[in-house]
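Q: What residues go here?
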């Protein structure tokens, strides 16, 4: 259903105000007729100039016993402003004008003036209260719409944050798991290429190594995009634990010595962080120090626990594999999430990576 045109509503209100004056049985002088005409015409300005409309109805309120025009003006003023002092000043002015004697020489007894003022005050206050009620309802409706929009925006932000964490986690797991396996394929293919004597085997190994290197390069770009979209904060998901550490060492493709042990009651996030640290460190050994041996040392005391991975220097040239150092950055982030630290750097005879976590 279409709403009525504002001008049609205003013309209807003017007609009601005119009818209110015409039904008055008293004789209307020319001055009173002019005041009534001004009051009725002023209603056409109520949407843009509500205060002016109210002022234009005051002479008619004083001279005539009309009710419609002043009531419409007071209602419009109350609906358009929240200035309480102005509103009650308008009510008081209308009450005084309606209860003041007209013509000026006509005298009323004090009791009659008081009763007339009280009646006028109650009558003028009614449209103001109604206008304020409508304004409050409109403001509340607008506020509810704003709250709903804010909630929708908050839900969108939450969904984006969840998606960002998932993207970052996918990027991290792609680097830790997929790149780990592909780099191992590239290293094994390079070793096969050097050791093979059959030309077909050498060519096949060269092709495998080249495709593995290209795949690692693509993975590096994908991880960069996922991490950029996902931010820096991610949640650790249930993945390998310390029970899988021996299998990781056996499948690393390098000579690794495991020393020390950790308590079985360590929390799952800490176990996963230990596992990922060892995995990334051994991946870097294969990529950057072929032929080197590594030592994985697990340790713990009353306050902290961790792992230290050291490796010797390479004894043959390294296969050039793409690297973006996201692995070391990810390890530092994992440690920071658990309140620990991760340090890595070259030593006199190789390289060292150390993870330290609070107990």
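A:
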């Amino acid at each position: 259903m279409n709403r009525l045109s504002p001008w049609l509503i205003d013309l209807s209100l003017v007609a009601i105000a005119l009818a209110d004056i015409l039904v008055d049985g008293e004789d209307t002088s020319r001055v009173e007729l002019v005041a009534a005409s001004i009051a009725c015409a002023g209603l056409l300005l109520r949407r843009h100039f509500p205060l002016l409309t109210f002022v234009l109805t005051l002479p008619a309120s004083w001279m005539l016993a009309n009710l419609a025009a002043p009531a419409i003006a007071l209602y419009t003023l109350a609906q358009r402003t929240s200035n309480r002092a102005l509103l009650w000043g308008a009510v008081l002015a209308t009450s005084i004008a309606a209860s003041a004697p007209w013509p000026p020489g006509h005298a009323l007894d004090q009791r009659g003036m008081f009763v007339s003022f009280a009646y006028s005050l109650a009558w003028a206050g009614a449209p103001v209260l109604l206008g304020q009620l409508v304004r409050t309802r409109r403001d509340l409706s607008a506020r509810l719409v704003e709250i709903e929009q804010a909630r929708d925006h908050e839900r969108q932000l939450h969904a984006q944050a969840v998606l960002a964490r998932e993207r970052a986690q996918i990027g991290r797991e792609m680097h830790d798991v997929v790149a780990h396996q592909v780099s191992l394929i590239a290293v094994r293919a390079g070793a096969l290429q050097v050791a093979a004597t059959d030309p077909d085997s050498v060519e096949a190994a060269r092709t495998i190594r080249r495709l593995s290197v290209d795949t690692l390069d693509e993975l590096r770009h994908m991880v960069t995009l996922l991490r950029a979209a996902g931010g820096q904060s991610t949640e650790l998901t249930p993945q390998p634990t310390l029970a899988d550490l021996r299998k990781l060492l056996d499948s690393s493709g390098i000579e690794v010595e495991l020393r020390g042990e950790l308590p079985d009651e360590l929390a799952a996030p800490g176990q996963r962080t230990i596992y990922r640290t060892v995995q990334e460190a051994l991946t870097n050994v294969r990529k950057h120090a072929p032929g080197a041996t590594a030592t994985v040392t697990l340790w713990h005391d009353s306050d902290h626990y961790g792992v230290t991975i050291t490796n010797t220097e390479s004894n043959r040239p390294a296969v050039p594999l793409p690297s973006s150092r996201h692995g070391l950055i990810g390890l530092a982030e994992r440690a920071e999430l658990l309140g620990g630290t991760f340090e890595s750097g070259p030593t006199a005879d190789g390289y060292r990576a150390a993870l330290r976590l609070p107990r």
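A: Context that may help when evaluating the design: Residues 13 and 156 are 46 Å apart (CA to CA). The longest strand covers residues 304-312.
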